[in-house]
Amino acid sequence: MGNVDYVYPSANVESSRRVAIPPPQPFITTLKNSLKETFFPDDPLRQFKNQPASRKLVLGIQYVFPIFEWAPRYTLDFLKSDLISGITIASLAIPQGISYAKLANLPPILGLYSSFIPPLVYAMMGSSRDLAVGTVAVASLLTASMLGAEINATENPTLYLHLAFTATFFAGVFQALLGLLRLGFIVDFLSHATIVGFMAGAATVVCLQQLKGILGLEHFTKGTDIVSVMRSVFSQTHEWRWESGVLGCCFLFFLLTTRYFSQKKPKFFWISAMAPLTSVILGSVLVYLTHAEKHGVQVIGELKKGLNPLSFGDLLFVSPYLSTAFKTGVITAIIALAEGIAVGRSFSMFKNYHIDGNKEMIAFGMMNIAGSCTSCYLTTGPFSRSAVNYNSGCKTAMSNIVMAIAVMFTLLFLTPLFHYTPLVVLAAIIIAAMLGLIKYEEAIHLWKVDKFDFVVCMSAYFGVVFGSVEIGLVLAVALSIMRVLLFVARPKTFMLGNVPDSLAYRSMEQYTNASNIPGILILEIDAPIYFANSNYLRERIARWIDEEEDRVKAAGESSLQYVILNMAAVGNIDTSGISMLDEVKKIIDRRGLKLVLANPGSEVMKKMHKSELIEKIGREWIHLTVGEAVGACNFMLHTTKSDLVKEKSGAWDKV
């Protein structure tokens, strides 16, 4: 039997160690355990166990508002670090906020509003110490694309603005509900490959959109695909403004140079963080001194002075465009969650602390609900701002409060200074930020590791660039879901062999030196057995048997007698799976073979017991390990051969 000499049982085929059938449990208990594993895998209520009522109240408040957990332990050293971080990210948030609001076809002041209220809410409810809250380019582009398809922001700015607030409200409600109902796993359908491709495609589209500002064009296509943008750009060559182009290229070069320097010298991270605000100041001074606004360089114009006005009365719940606002809110909410939670988890791993994804969803949802009522549009945790927050040494979410105070000061006193800020500088800021999202090295890595993930990534990218943001997202998610369904419907099956000089049985595809066991076929099913894959598995097992019998016949080896199914990876099975095993047993019996099971799990044993399949197979043919199953089969083969030899010798003696 391969390379191992077995000591066969002396008397009985049945092993003394039987596979146990789990004790029966009440249906309510089983349902409770299943729901707990599905919705509470991290057991968030564990900290409340065996605590007095007063302590439970305190823990409950701290769970909902983490600020009450870290605030009592706050120190002066923490304040110094958070003060530096907050001021640094504020210098980045102010120009980026104005730029992204323009990208969303919203008044620039909304970018500042959105960097004031939402960070305060997140500081109270968020669990990440490093996440810096604010608007993001991709969500801004989605807002402009989806709302702009129904409403022209130039012709009807008030309706467009109110729909943006309504979409933000729906986004917040959707995010909060996902967190409250513990449905965060829905966001997991946006795989890493999907996010890489989608973000790169969106970044490419955003960069192309900025050609309007760089070239000083007044009329531009509403489409986001590359064909429409290129047609719009090159059909207006006579409208290009060389002054704007030169200014934009100079500031873009400055921004990219400072970022490259900061990447090479991490200690000087503040240089790239201050570069956008520096560009805004220099650009504004240059335009003011040269009166460039009279020579084709477009400027922001007047920004309204003062804090966020209330906008709850502007939410439209009876508008004919309600479905558009709802769809925009849900899609932007999912994208914002995927980015924000991924960024938060990345930085939490660096500092070795845990963040609760569902709590983060609730925090994001509440800050967007509050934002929609205070003239803000969708916010999340952008990577660029959070990276600056992390590199500048933040200690707690207080850095968001410091940033919000800095933005508040700007809203109260400094908004008139942005009057002469050229739009071309904002375009350069957006392009510089977006180039960091085009991670070609990630695509190369996906190609090396998993070709299908690379296809998903490229589908998302080209779908966004040549179609639209919605098409790219739907295409990538559809491919990801299709792959999940393929994993379920077409699970892997392996033929196992004996690894030389061991009792281990492993895939013969992986271990090429593993040997077959004469007269025995060992198969492993590498997935739960459900209605979606039961027919496939029945046909695949029959094909394995056909192929093994053909191989044995061609090699002149001992005929096949036993088929062992290793069930170690079969975590669960439904009634269709039980019927499949019953059919496989009948197929094997008709061929004159014997079905043997190895290492079935508790759920499999429980359902086989209830369906009386164990009695049909025989308890003596269900073993704890593949090794025991092989030993039992070999014992039977050895016993059968000995009996045949005795019968033949007895017949000759009579003669």
Shape: elongated
- The parts where pLDDT drops under 50 for at least 5 residues are 1-16
Distance between the termini: 35 Å
Largest sheet: 6 strands, mixed
* Secondary structure: number of strands: 6
Strand percentage lies at under 5%
Architecture overview:
A 6-stranded mixed sheet has the order 2-1-3-4-5-6. It is mainly alpha-helical. The chain has helices at 27-39, 53-64, 67-70, 76-103, 109-113, 117-125, 137-148, 157-180, 192-209, 211-214, 226-234, 242-264, 269-290, 322-351, 357-372, 383-391, 398-414, 423-435, 440-449, 451-466, 469-489, 534-555, 575-590, 602-610, 613-617, 626-654; strands spanning 493-498, 505-507, 520-525, 562-566, 594-598, 622-623.
Question: Secondary structure elements and their pairing?
Answer:
Blueprint: H1 27-39, H2 53-64, H3 67-70, H4 76-103, H5 109-113, H6 117-125, H7 137-148, H8 157-180, H9 192-209, H10 211-214, H11 226-234, H12 242-264, H13 269-290, H14 322-351, H15 357-372, H16 383-391, H17 398-414, H18 423-435, H19 440-449, H20 451-466, H21 469-489, E1 493-498, E2 505-507, E3 520-525, H22 534-555, E4 562-566, H23 575-590, E5 594-598, H24 602-610, H25 613-617, E6 622-623, H26 626-654
Parallel strand pairs: 3-4, 4-5, 5-6
Antiparallel strand pairs: 1-2, 1-3
